[in-house]
Amino acid sequence: SIGADGAKAIADSLKVNSTLTTIDLGCDIFDNNSLGDDGAQAIAESLIVNTTLTIINLDGNSIGVDGAKAIA
């Protein structure tokens, strides 16, 4: 499980990323990364400055309304 703290660390890395175009943080019914709203908000903030990432999968991460709004 990555969790919100792990998502924040990934988000920090994405802010300076210049090569990664795709990231898959999704999970299935047997696994849950549990990014939650806090993790989703951190990822969303990193996407403001990241111009390289074009595909991100956050499926199955317990992201609620607040996290979804941040990503949108």
Short description:
With 72 residues, the chain is mainly alpha-helical. The protein has helices at residues 3-16, 36-49, 65-71, and strands spanning 22-24, 55-57.
Write the layout of secondary structure elements.
Blueprint: H1 3-16, E1 22-24, H2 36-49, E2 55-57, H3 65-71
Parallel strand pairs: 1-2
Helix pairs in contact: 1-2, 2-3
What does this structure look like?
The protein has 72 residues and is mainly alpha-helical. It contains 3 helices and 2 strands, in the order αβαβα. It has a two-stranded parallel sheet. α2 links the parallel β1 and β2. It is globular and about 30 Å long. It starts with a helix and ends with a helix. The model has no long low-confidence stretch (mean pLDDT 92).
Give the biggest sheet: 2 strands, parallel
Helix fraction bin: 40-55%
Mean pLDDT: 92
Poorly predicted parts: none
Percent of residues in beta strands? 5-15%
Find the structural class using helix and strand composition.
mainly alpha
Rg from alpha-carbon coordinates: 11 Å
Number of helices: 3
First and last CA, distance: 24 Å
Give the overall shape.
globular
Strand order of the largest sheet: 1-2
Q: Give helix and strand order, one letter per element, not per position.
A: HEHEH
Count every beta strand, where a strand is a DSSP E run of 2 or more residues. 2
